[in-house]
From TrEMBL:
This is Peroxidase. GO terms for molecular function: heme binding; lactoperoxidase activity; metal ion binding. The lineage of its organism: Eukaryota, Viridiplantae, Streptophyta, Embryophyta, Tracheophyta. Belongs to the peroxidase family. Ascorbate peroxidase subfamily. Keywords: Calcium, Disulfide bond, Glycoprotein, Heme, Hydrogen peroxide, Iron, Metal-binding, Oxidoreductase, Peroxidase, Secreted, Signal. It comes from Lactuca virosa.
Length: 335
């Protein structure tokens, strides 16, 4: 039984860790685990484990991309999204559809087998996402490692995640609070080149956009007709649609997404707005006409992965990605 004084102390310590985490970017490095794992190559272990999962389920790529974004955007890349608990980030409404936890568990088991108590869950998310992107045609980008795992995970903190119906200006402001530029945001939303969205995230665009009783006038009419078939107005099942409406490219990490939104074939409101808003449309057009999307996307993912990280002696290296090491600290997960 944890008494109130102990919980108060732990909460205070937790907030100290949160406050410190925003000032520690420099300790990440390429090859952080070299020589730290009894001669084993940590990144190779991660790659092989992700490959085994990918061969069974190729949708792990959009799942992991979403997981990394949702983890890093909420109090930094500290694997707080992985923690189980009655009031942890995992239970927040924006995170209820996050998948890929089994992939992270499998990687953690594999690295712990040869290298116990060394590799953080926060690094595993970043490395596994990179490898899944590479397997889906996105090119392999080098990632920095050396993150530590956070001890705090609260559902209320996930309220800051941008909504699919956010305006471009509000999204830019939200990303700026994480040290990410408007260009970073536009490239990171390029992660929508792969994966799906459930009808509930865009149904208003099909039938009652901004309470007008009409569809979103910016949506291509052929796409509107198609999506209405997929998402009937009174459906009892939440259907889904590819975020990249190029059927030849919806499972590949490439620049096709930008071409589609320029054709008014964006599924989510924020995606379509990128192609028409004066703050973003020129960058969208430049990316659509470029030949270096995968390189620039990788660079944006690396920058996202450096958001508010814990390093050095901050945080911990979890034994299980789903739980903090000290049971006393579970008060910061269960609320």
């Amino acid at each position: 039984m944890v008494n109130n004084k102990t919980v108060a102390f732990v909460v205070a310590i937790g907030f100290i860790f949160l406050n410190l985490s925003g000032h520690c970017y420099g300790a990440l490095q390429f090859g952080f685990y070299n020589g730290k794992c009894r001669g084993s190559d940590v990144e190779d272990i991660v790659r092989k484990t992700v490959l085994s999962k990918f061969l069974v389920d190729r949708t792990i790529t959009p799942a992991l991309l979403r997981m990394q974004f949702h983890d890093c955007f909420v109090n930094g890349c500290d694997a707080s999204i992985l923690l189980d608990g009655t009031n942890s980030e995992k239970t927040a409404p924006p995170n209820l559809s996050v998948r890929g936890y089994d992939v992270i568990d499998a990687v953690k088991t594999a690295v712990e087998r040869v290298c116990p108590d060394v590799v953080s869950c926060a690094d595993i998310i970043v490395m596994a996402t990179r490898d899944a992107v590479s397997l889906s045609g996105g090119g392999r980008y080098n990632v920095q490692t050396g993150r530590r795992d956070g001890r705090v995970s609260l559902a209320k903190d996930a309220q800051i995640l941008p909504s699919p119906s956010s305006s471009v200006s509000s999204a830019i402001k939200a990303f700026a609070t994480k040290g990410l530029t408007a260009t970073d945001m536009i490239y990171l939303l390029g992660g929508h080149t792969i994966g799906i969205a459930h009808c509930s995230f865009f149904q208003d665009r099909l039938y009652n956009f901004q309470n007008t009783g009409k569809p979103d006038p910016t949506m291509d009419l052929a796409l509107l007709t198609s999506l209405r078939r997929t998402c009937p107005q009174n459906a009892t099942v939440d259907g889904k649609a590819n975020l990249d409406q190029n059927s030849f490219s919806s499972a590949v990490v490439d620049k096709s997404f930008y071409t589609q939104i320029m054709l008014r074939r964006g599924v989510l409101q924020i995606d379509q707005a990128l192609a028409s808003d004066g703050l973003s449309k020129s960058t969208v057009a430049a990316i659509a006409g470029s030949s270096d999307f995968t390189t620039k996307f990788g660079q944006a993912m690396v920058k996202l992965g450096g958001t508010q990280v814990l390093t050095g002696t901050q945080g911990e290296i979890r034994k299980s990605c789903r739980a903090v090491n000290s049971q006393t600290l579970m008060a910061l997960v269960n609320g």
